[in-house]
Amino acid sequence: MDYTYAPGRNHLFVPGPVNIPDQVLRAMNRNNEDYRSPAIPALTKTLLEDVKKIFKTTSGTPFLIPTTGTGAWESALTNTLSPGDRIVSFIIGQFSLLWVDQQKRLGFNVDVVESEWGRGADLDVLASKLAADTAHTIKAVCIVHNETATGVTNNLATVRKILDEYQHPALFLVDGVSSICALDFRMDEWGVDVALTGSQKALSLPTGMGIVCASPKAIEASQSAKSLRVFFDWKDYLKFYKMGTYWPYTPSIQLLYGLKAALDLIFEEGLDNVIARHTRLGTATRLAVEAWGLKNCTQKEEWFSDTVTAVVVPPYIDSSEIVRRGWKRYNLSLGLGLNKVAGKVFRIGHLGHLNDLQLLGCLAGVEMVLKDVGYPVKLGSGVAAACAYLQNNIPMIPSRI
Amino acid sequence: MDYTYAPGRNHLFVPGPVNIPDQVLRAMNRNNEDYRSPAIPALTKTLLEDVKKIFKTTSGTPFLIPTTGTGAWESALTNTLSPGDRIVSFIIGQFSLLWVDQQKRLGFNVDVVESEWGRGADLDVLASKLAADTAHTIKAVCIVHNETATGVTNNLATVRKILDEYQHPALFLVDGVSSICALDFRMDEWGVDVALTGSQKALSLPTGMGIVCASPKAIEASQSAKSLRVFFDWKDYLKFYKMGTYWPYTPSIQLLYGLKAALDLIFEEGLDNVIARHTRLGTATRLAVEAWGLKNCTQKEEWFSDTVTAVVVPPYIDSSEIVRRGWKRYNLSLGLGLNKVAGKVFRIGHLGHLNDLQLLGCLAGVEMVLKDVGYPVKLGSGVAAACAYLQNNIPMIPSRI
Amino acid sequence: MDYTYAPGRNHLFVPGPVNIPDQVLRAMNRNNEDYRSPAIPALTKTLLEDVKKIFKTTSGTPFLIPTTGTGAWESALTNTLSPGDRIVSFIIGQFSLLWVDQQKRLGFNVDVVESEWGRGADLDVLASKLAADTAHTIKAVCIVHNETATGVTNNLATVRKILDEYQHPALFLVDGVSSICALDFRMDEWGVDVALTGSQKALSLPTGMGIVCASPKAIEASQSAKSLRVFFDWKDYLKFYKMGTYWPYTPSIQLLYGLKAALDLIFEEGLDNVIARHTRLGTATRLAVEAWGLKNCTQKEEWFSDTVTAVVVPPYIDSSEIVRRGWKRYNLSLGLGLNKVAGKVFRIGHLGHLNDLQLLGCLAGVEMVLKDVGYPVKLGSGVAAACAYLQNNIPMIPSRI
Amino acid sequence: MDYTYAPGRNHLFVPGPVNIPDQVLRAMNRNNEDYRSPAIPALTKTLLEDVKKIFKTTSGTPFLIPTTGTGAWESALTNTLSPGDRIVSFIIGQFSLLWVDQQKRLGFNVDVVESEWGRGADLDVLASKLAADTAHTIKAVCIVHNETATGVTNNLATVRKILDEYQHPALFLVDGVSSICALDFRMDEWGVDVALTGSQKALSLPTGMGIVCASPKAIEASQSAKSLRVFFDWKDYLKFYKMGTYWPYTPSIQLLYGLKAALDLIFEEGLDNVIARHTRLGTATRLAVEAWGLKNCTQKEEWFSDTVTAVVVPPYIDSSEIVRRGWKRYNLSLGLGLNKVAGKVFRIGHLGHLNDLQLLGCLAGVEMVLKDVGYPVKLGSGVAAACAYLQNNIPMIPSRI
Predict the structure, then answer these.
(1) Which in A301, C64, C135, D400 has the greatest CB count within 10 A?
(2) What is the DSSP string of B343-387?
(3) A16 contacts on B by Cβ (under 8 Å)
(4) Inter-chain CB proximity C333 and D37 less than 8 Å
């Protein structure tokens, strides 16, 4: 059943699904249970309270949906919008592109703002669109917080600032799939109306839970939204929340216990420490890339992503060969370049349950792979650059002092 | 994290989620992986071939969707039908009722045929509707194979016979959630167009995978169906099947390996032996119910379900109290009566990874619960009746002879 | 790797190794760790304190030895005695016989007191030996608390009474392998000098840890005992206890965490409740045996064991066939008759992580097996007898009220 | 229960216990079983055949004893020797010292040959002792293949050569704890009479199984050896081997299944490939040490160990501080210096289930630790040196080509 055995650990550096903590694996290693017994509602109640913290919201309503990020997107859109609604959406890479594709196929009138891949969403265009929209025909602004394909982080605070500037009532819908629990995200402060993530990203769980959080304004919108929906309908959830049984259909018992364990670890580390760790790992990665003489796909520092780095390879190298080679020789899993940047970039995911020495092992591996495929890297250079930074910045482990 | 500890095993006799084999728990006890490495497509390819066997189809196309049974329903409907399409659907209990609710909310024109709860779908009415529909305005016949709320199994062969009799081209959509892998189900022979189940039922996995299988005719219908859909869209799956990467979005690595293990066990036992085991456990349960002097909610033998038995309690007893008592005193998980039969029936699920002595422990527990709540059961009577049958019918374990 | 697959759970009713709670399996599902880091000593310190509670001692010194019950025996003997020392020891079944065999092979002068198998240790003979031994040549009295082969529990309080009566200074060494954590055991109150058990018995862990507890008097004896020993030498443990690193050689990390989880569950249930549960399960089993018209191997009620029941079969039946049949047809694991009672008894172990419905499933299975092998049992009779008692005696589950 | 949480994986580089493969963890994640059912003997039989391969013996008899390496030592000695027997034994570090301590305490007349720590066993002295011993008073030569405290590998082929040269009949007893399954070891070719290892070393299992293999000559010796023993007595094992039930007392079910999985992985990789991997990892480590400007505790290349490297630190640094720091800041577990080399060396274990990128992460971590404690290492230097070698020497993963 394990087709591709190799000695030692797999070095998993795709930007999701990411490494699962042993504590979470243990929590999930269990039989099914009756989800209508008092135990599961009690657990769910705790989870719904706890999960709000990772969104930094007190007023939001979370939904733990047995689906993926793609389903979470659909949940966000269909519950708040009606077919034909005008929305502004940005394409800056493969995942924002896929979201826009979904938005169109679900029947919305999508006003697409495209950027060159490697750049952030063009918020000036957003500003002019909002400024022009005095009739408030724009019903929602949809944006990915972090584009996983290019390693670009958009500035959500600025989006809110623009919305406020024009006193525009559009809903503010955020794909936080590769950001929430890893990057600084503030649902209430930034007035985000729907934010969402997937369990297999910074939460470090298996795939299978779409975590969606809705502001009161989004909940209100859901009462009149006309998009047809059942599986993703918040109404059914809210009905069962009220009854105290919580689940309109069967949840994954294992993922619920896993989520509890994952949140416990995040809170034990401290959410802000988790975010600081991602900043550190992202910085170290970028220093290595620089030392290798390679370019970050992300064009400006303001957009640098602390969860994934897309590295541009020289034109004479096929970046897919780097990914293949990593897997076939070093048991190293890197991310492919996708669509427009296929063959041109490879990606190092550095999110979730991960520490410095794991990353350094990956960076050493990338160096050998680069050499394998003909890039004249100085072996050790990236690791040296990362270590010089890390050795000054890694904190002591609080539980061990 | 375990709020409700009790010594010894939980006796899980709800009709899903059901007991997971240790072999499957072991297979799922693993870290995430890159789903774009060659390993996961290779595994998926095997799974898609293997999973057809549980549907008894060679021409069908299976989809392993990260969702629940409710999502699988939605996938079946939205891929084959367009809003406004007329469909015939049956309400015979809570789950068929919920499916009809979904059908309506998704915009179909649902021609509902209701039966008293405890009876099967009224196929005479189906026959007359099809007979009258010479214009072929009926686009689909939707039916649950086994109604989990009442323990009623519908006769699908008869449905096909009726469709054939009137040479009606309607699609034949089947909810096999509490039947497939436990009851006799023959997709190709019965000309079923879409069949579906959920991982947490007879497959004995955690919740989180909706398994949908589409006939060539259903696949063809999906090309013109106008229901808006993205997450559930087969088109995206088919595109990735063709590319050999299989996944339009991230699957649960753990459920894939778990499904492999679950199918391996089913094939090791032999699917027909699995079905025979369910017949045996269902029969034993019904003999116990009879010995207790209680009535099966299912009114006729032809509809008896071998996966779940709904037991009618005397009017002076609240069946919910039986379920509560089982859990609070005996670590026994039984199914509640739902909706119209709430308080009137309790349910014994006897599907999935289960054997005779487990069932007998449950039956002994039910007897004590019945006595607890004031029903004058003769302790041991149900177990005796079940044993008398089982001792003559349990086969030797082939691997141990 | 699983040679003998059968659907559903194995019904494990041998008197050890016993069922492991899922919580313990989860706790043990972990990688190795450096046992010289601060984490393992901290855990060990807690364990050594906690484990004293199951011996009901405050003055004893526990040792968690990577071995089995046989090794724990050897540890008890070689640390407290010198070759040639006279000891009184009882043979009442296979395990006490094996302990005596060990005592002889380790060079002690064993004064053996034999009883018919099915009877307890003859304490009158002990009394006369102690009375006669005014020179105090007897260095130790060795006794099994519960003989696992025959289901006989010896009265340890009486042993202490006799020792006190003659003011005899002999050490009091107790094999508590199938008693501690299941039967009433009071190390301090009964003045036991060494008591021991194995992890796979009532503690419900995997095999691999011998748990030995020594009184101050035993510790003192160990300073002059001349039996050669290294692996089992308490001296090495005590040296490392003093240093605070605890381990003279590598422990099983997994068993340490498992022991913590197992003790936590025992304390959550309450040790006295655990013992009461065993009394209840033992009583129910004996009522079933009586209902079947079969005899308990144990000849008098005062010796009845609440952890294992040896059932005598009629002479025309080979009890081994019962065990084989249970395994081959019902996935039921019963204990064989050993040595003198081979073929004559089969054993039902009812100790450890076990509850009433599990036992009832087993009893129903035994009934069918009995019928299979030609014993004219009335099916349901044992279950009925057990249920009549249990339904009056099972407490509500405290965490669920 | 997890006292010392830190994000990401623990980097386990002590020379045992080592990292357990996920496949092995999965295989061990299981309930207890009746070890007297046919399943466990069948499994055991396979294991006893398979385990011979890691000793490279066809004539040896293996014993899988529920104990640790210390117990395995005791088993080797007490089964083949009688108190007072003269044996030659070498002290070259802490573990050989402890074995000699055991030998003395077990009553043997130990002729100790000491070397400076960091040097191998002085085989010239062995030669002269054997030469002088024309009366064959020397009953055994005891030697550790690999001294885990100093990272010194003794040349066993030379030992055999010397024994043969003097046609000396002494038994040849080998501690292979940190060698077998990692270093080249040839029981039959080198005429080793007893070889032993522990499960938690290169086999990459949890602690708890001492694996001992005896040559026909050793088995013969065991029939007359007068050392008192029961738990460790091969006689009991052999008796049960003959009966086909295999176990004189209860084994760990989990470790048996774990051993099967561990051996399967070793055979899948190929034992010689496993050994080659250890050579590669050892070489890479030594290159890093050299690049850091530090000295290997092992004084000559002929003794270099491919399973553990003891690194000498400058006198102004306390090596224990390095270990502490690694654990407290980097989640890196290194080995302490022991006894004579306490404070002077730290150890990098590079054995068992481990690959190149894991090692490189460790080496990067060691560099940062060295800098932390005031050693002027050039960050990246060791990794660069290791990578330069590894990038030329790592083979493609056969299952992935």
Answers:
(1) C64
(2) TTEEEEE--SS--HHHHHHHHHHHHHHHHHTT----TTHHHHHHH
(3) 250
(4) yes
What amino acid is encoded at A3 in this protein?
A: Y
The matching CATH number, chosen from 2.60.40.10, 3.30.10.20, 3.90.1150.10, 1.10.600.10, for C11-18+270-400 is: 3.90.1150.10
Q: Name chain D contacts of B38, Cβ cutoff 8 Å.
A: 400
B partners (3+ CB pairs within 8 A) are A, C, D
Residues of C with CB under 8 A from a CB of A: 22, 25-27, 29-31, 38, 400
Rounded Cα distance, B117 and B295, in Å: 14
CA distance D19 to chain A (A): 8
Q: What is the mean pLDDT of chain C?
A: 98
For residue B27, which residues of chain D lie inside 8 Å, CB to CB? Answer: 26
Q: Taking CB atoms and an 8 Å cutoff, what residues of chain B touch C267?
A: none
pLDDT in tens, C86-124: 999 999 999 999 999 999 999 999 999 999 999 999 999
Q: Is C347 annotated as a binding residue?
A: yes
Mean pLDDT of the region C381-394: 98
Q: CA-to-CA distance for B148 and C193, rounded, in angstroms?
A: 60
Share of chain C above pLDDT 70, in %: 100
- With 90 as the cut, is the pLDDT of residue D21 above it? yes
Task: State whether CATH 3.90.1150.10 applies to domain B11-18+271-396.
Answer: yes
C397 and C322 Cβ atoms separated by less than 8 Å: no
Interface touch B30/D38, C-beta < 8 Å: no
pLDDT in tens, A253-286: 999 999 999 999 999 999 999 999 999 999 999 9
Amino acid at D278: H
Question: Cα dihedral angle (B216, B217, B218, B221), rounded to 10 degrees?
Answer: 120
Confidence at residue A3, expressed as pLDDT on a 0 to 100 scale: 72
Q: Which of D1, D30, D371, D387 to mutate to test the interface with A (most CBs of A within 10 A)?
A: D387
Q: Which residues, in sequence order, are bridge partners of residue C140? A: C87, C171
User: Could D22 and B31 be called an inter-chain contact, meaning their C-beta atoms sit closer than 8 Å?
Assistant: yes
Q: State the Cα–Cα distance between residues A103 and A45, nearest whole angstrom.
A: 32
Q: Do C22 and A30 touch (CB under 8 A)?
A: yes
Q: What was the pLDDT predicted at C395? A: 98
pLDDT reported for residue A2: 65
Numbered ranges of CATH 3.90.1150.10 in chain D: 11-18+270-400
Question: C22-267 — its CATH code?
Answer: 3.40.640.10
- Which tokens hold the place of B280? 């045996």
User: Closest Cα of chain B to A199: distance in Å?
Assistant: 10
- Distance, CA of A183 to CA of A271 (rounded, Å): 10
In a 13 Å sphere around the CA of D136, the CA atoms on its Cβ side amount to 7
Q: Considering chain B, tell me which residue range(s) the CATH 3.40.640.10 domain(s) occupy.
A: 22-267
Q: Is D385 in Cβ contact with A384 (below 8 Å)?
A: no
Q: B2 pLDDT band (50/70/90 cuts)?
A: low
Mean pLDDT of B122-137: 98
Q: Tell me the shortest Cα–Cα distance from C9 to chain A, in angstroms.
A: 12
Confidence of residue C220 (pLDDT cuts 50, 70, 90): very high
**Which are the contacts of B68, defined by CB distance < 8 A and separation ≥ 6?**
A66, A231, A249, A250, B198, B207, B208, B210
Q: In chain C, whose CA is at the least distance from the CA of B366?
A: C357
In chain D, the percentage of residues whose pLDDT exceeds 70 is 100
Task: List, for residues D332-370, the tens digit of each pLDDT value.
Answer: 999 999 999 999 999 999 999 999 999 999 999 999 999
Domain A11-18+271-400 has CATH 3.90.1150.10: yes
Q: What is the pLDDT, as a whole number, of residue D3? A: 72
Could C29 and A26 be called an inter-chain contact, meaning their C-beta atoms sit closer than 8 Å? yes
Our CA-based measurement puts residue A42 at a distance from the nearest CA of chain D, in whole angstroms, of: 22
The ranges of chain A annotated as CATH 3.90.1150.10 are 11-18+271-400
State the pLDDT at residue C3.
73
Q: Hey, are the CB atoms on A17 and B66 less than 8 Å from each other? A: no
